[in-house]
Write a structure and sequence with these properties.
The complex is a heterotrimer of chains A (332), B (390) and C (77). Chain A has 332 residues and is α+β, with helices and mostly antiparallel strands. In chain A, 29% of the residues lie in helices and 23% in strands. Chain A has 8 helices and 13 strands. Chain B has 2 domains: 312 residues, Rossmann fold, CATH 3.40.50.11740; 43 residues, no CATH class. Classes of the chains: A alpha+beta (332), B alpha/beta (390), C mainly beta (77).
């Protein structure tokens, strides 16, 4: 199938069926989708995790990923950090009339590949086509369901005194990849996003038997935003500047564009708050899992009064504030 | 490579600074470069200094000192039909009467952040039917880049590009600010401005302002040795301008950049937010390059803090705004003390709006706008933790 | 103001230099400097080399620092 998306393809008629048959089914096909009914009928657990997210990223394709890979990983990772085993996702698309079918196929294939990688099944979906000018190419919403088991209860999501803060890999890669692409920075080689499912990383920590007090994927607002979600009035979170893992190319791009990696989005790492006694075990299991080689203990939770700060390499302190507003590159 | 990370060395320098500072009373040192401000907060330099040595931020952020008149001008041009307005990210959020370039961008106006002036040239070539305007902000470090853009556009005969210059020069402002001052004991001079205009260009600080000065780099180590130089001079009763950033700063600066700068620009009076008009502290585009001057392209008449755009369009009437900015140390709303902060007479927490009505997400004064602005940097890297430091 | 980042010139072509920042490189203009050479360290601001770094002159500065500060033994090699 070639050409451009038309309004008719969103109308529910013949053209719509053709789009589903020729673009989405070949990419997504599975036993749950085969009946093409209104709802998918799936197996669930006693307790489920349920999440949704919308993706409006520009550019649609960027070094290291694209909107398709992102819309799967983003939702799946949200499930994974709750402690659940991600199972099913839905894919809802809002497409602007005039959108290239070829591009749509590329995105659909990327969604399928990411879903396979993450071990989730696309069980339902929806497509709407809007007039040219009412959307910017394509918007995608995904929702996801994960299940909890006895061995996999929900993570409490409460950091505790003396916890160690662990990061599972290099930070700031996704945000800097997107910024470099949007600003046409033409870095050589281009900075690649870290967008990836983190399920195996989560699994490795859980299977190591270590207790997880809190686990998040530090997306928008970066590590700083997650720390601010975790802080309570009776503790301080201390980060060690020198321990923060940043890929050299990302670090250079941050310097050139005047950015602080702590505030930059990630799409393929997680932040954990682990009791002191288990921290080394968690770190060891991450290090032996593909994608977790650069995991590091970056800080700890101490007695305090709701402050988050980092210790610089000179032993001085600087406060880590709540990220505000869209980050803009600076020159001056 | 240039980053000398020996904390041992820093500790030794720190100890020596404390030694030199002992018994010489309260010392106030001003940095006049926003990147210094950011570095000082980022590395917690103030915490490495003895209690009697205080660092304050001067007028070193080009975004902070861009007058509301010039922001209003930029907004007026950016709202014109068929204009693509290009600027650095820093200036996007500068508020002016409830609007900013960012708010226009949110409304769908074609405003593009560039990371080099030459990006504007590419945009102009890619969009022959649009008028591309580049907003030139910055001191002597950045102005030669804008000059290079103008030179290249002229050489290639590009018709659809023009530059709105709000460029400024540093020495005049420092003299204006500190000529009768007795609160500042010494100056940390902007390393990257100096890499263009030369270390000698700051010899007026010891000679005319009677204060010791150092030209400094931007790593923690650079700043610490600069402070060491200052404390040594204060201790010995010397007044010199020491170049503590010789790897990037020559005594005479960068001649190639300077000659291009003055080939394209000539000095003019300029409005500084919080300080008013400072003679010969601005850069305007020379007559020869008039076609590339946005003021001429959009028929803009400027008369001090008022301007008018001569376009016969009803809906643009509201852009004929006069820009009445603070002239007596306080802005028109009396809500922020930008001017006093820029002049180093107060620090950001002294301002009643700081951190409350004025935050990086919703800045009142320009000092909160750029992440290098004194207030934004202070807000971001505030050292006020537990009251045990800084 | 003036965020400028040092890097190494690895290629020169048509008045532009390829600057290696360690991990990534980027093309920047050489319009504002004379006699840039491959292998030089350059200070880059907003897409332009604004100065070629001179790493030799730092000696004098080091001397001042050494003369002023009594460094602890561990630091001296």
């Amino acid at each position: 199938m070639n050409g451009k998306i038309t309004l008719a393809q969103g109308s529910g008629g013949k053209a719509y069926r053709e789009l589903i048959q020729k673009v989405f089914l070949p990419a997504f096909f599975n036993e749950y989708l085969r009946p093409l009914t209104d709802s998918a009928v799936c197996d669930g657990g006693e307790r489920i995790a349920f999440t949704t997210d919308s993706y409006v990223i520009k550019p649609l394709f960027f070094p290291g990923g694209d909107i398709g890979r992102l819309c799967v990983c983003g939702t799946v990772n949200d499930l994974a950090v709750s402690g659940a085993i991600p199972k099913y996702i839905s894919v809802g698309m809002i497409i602007e009339a005039g959108f290239e079918v070829k591009t749509l196929v590329r995105i659909a294939n990327s969604i399928a590949k990411a879903a396979e990688e993450a071990g989730v099944i696309i069980v339902t979906g929806d497509t709407k086509v809007v007039e040219g000018g009412s959307a910017d190419g394509i918007f995608i919403n995904t929702a996801g369901v994960g299940v909890f088991t006895k061995e996999r209860p929900p993570v409490e999501q409460k950091v505790k005194l003396k916890d160690k803060i662990i990061i599972s890999g290099y930070m700031a890669s996704h945000g800097m990849a997107i910024m470099a692409a949007r600003m046409d920075m033409e870095f050589k080689p281009p900075i690649e996003s870290d967008v990836a499912p983190i399920i195996s990383l989560v699994d490795s920590v859980i299977k190591s038997g270590c207790k997880i007090n809190a686990m998040r994927d530090p997306t928008r607002g970066g590590v700083a935003a997650t720390l601010h979600e975790w802080i309570t009035p009776d503790i301080d979170i201390v980060i060690y500047d020198e321990a923060l893992p940043v890929r050299p190319d990302v670090a250079a791009a941050c310097e050139i564009l005047g950015m602080d990696p702590l505030y930059i989005a990630n799409e393929g790492i997680m932040l954990l708050s682990i009791p002191e006694c288990c921290a080394d075990l968690a770190l060891k299991s991450l290090h032996s899992t593909p994608g977790g080689e650069n995991a590091a203990i970056i800080g700890e939770v101490i007695n305090g009064s709701g402050n988050i700060y980092s210790i610089t390499e000179y032993g001085t302190k600087r406060r880590i504030i709540v990220p505000e507003g869209e980050l803009l590159p600076r020159i001056c | 490579m240039f980053n000398i990370k020996s904390s041992l060395k820093i500790k030794d320098i720190q100890r020596k600074i404390a030694e030199l500072a002992w018994g010489i009373g309260k010392i106030t040192i001003m940095e006049v470069c926003g990147t210094h401000t950011v570095s000082i907060r980022k590395y917690g330099i103030q915490q490495l200094l003895p209690g009697n040595v205080r660092l304050v931020s001067g007028p070193g952020c080009p975004v902070c000192v861009t007058d509301k008149r010039d922001i209003t001008l930029a907004l007026s041009i950016a709202t014109q039909e068929d204009v693509i307005f290009t600027c650095f990210g820093d200036i996007m959020r500068v508020p002016c009467d409830g609007r900013s370039l960012y708010s226009l961008y949110e409304e769908g106006k074609d405003i593009r952040i560039v990371t080099s002036p030459l990006d504007a040239l590419t945009i102009a070539q890619d969009n022959p039917k649009k008028q591309i305007v580049y907003f030139g902000i910055g001191f002597e470090t950045t102005a030669p880049l804008t000059a290079a853009l103008i030179e290249a556009a002229e050489a290639r005969g590009i018709q659809n590009l023009s530059v709105l210059s709000a460029h400024k020069t540093m020495p005049q402002a420092i003299i204006h600010l500190l000529k009768d001052d007795n609160t500042i004991d010494a100056l940390i001079c902007p390393g990257h401005v100096a890499s263009i205009i030369g270390a000698h260009a700051f010899s007026f600080v010891p000679e005319k302002l009677m204060k010791p000065a150092v030209v400094a780099g931007f790593e923690a180590y650079d700043i610490m040795i600069a402070l060491l130089g200052i404390m040594k001079m204060l201790h010995d009763g010397e007044r010199k301008c020491m170049n503590m950033y010789p790897r990037a700063v020559k005594p005479q600066g960068n001649k190639e950049a300077l000659s291009l700068l003055y080939k394209v620009f000539e000095p003019c009076d300029a409005l500084w937010r919080g300080m008013g008009k400072i003679p010969s502290s601005g850069l305007k585009i020379r007559e020869y390059y008039k076609k590339l001057d946005a003021l001429s392209k959009f028929n803009i008449n400027i008369n001090d803090d008022k301007f008018s755009i001569n376009i016969s369009d009803e809906k643009l009437k509201d852009t004929k705004v006069t820009s009445d900015v603070m002239r007596n140390g306080q802005d028109e709303t009396n809500k922020c003390i930008c001017a006093r902060i820029l002049c180093g007479k107060n620090i950001p927490p002294d301002c009643p709006s700081f951190g409350e009505a004025c935050t990086p997400a919703n800045p009142l004064g320009a000092c909160m706008v750029s992440s290098e602005g004194s207030c934004a940097a202070y807000y971001r890297y505030s050292n006020l933790l537990h009251g045990d430091i800084g | 103001m003036c965020l400028a980042v040092p890097g190494k010139i690895i290629k020169i072509e048509d008045g532009f230099a390829e600057i290696d920042y360690g991990g990534i490189s980027k093309r920047v203009s050489l319009r504002l400097v004379e006699n840039a050479k491959i292998g030089d360290y350059a200070l880059v601001h907003a897409g332009f080399v604004i100065q070629i770094l001179n790493l030799d002159v730092a000696c004098e500065l080091e001397k001042f620092i050494k003369d002023t500060v009594d460094f602890t033994d561990e630091d001296e090699k």
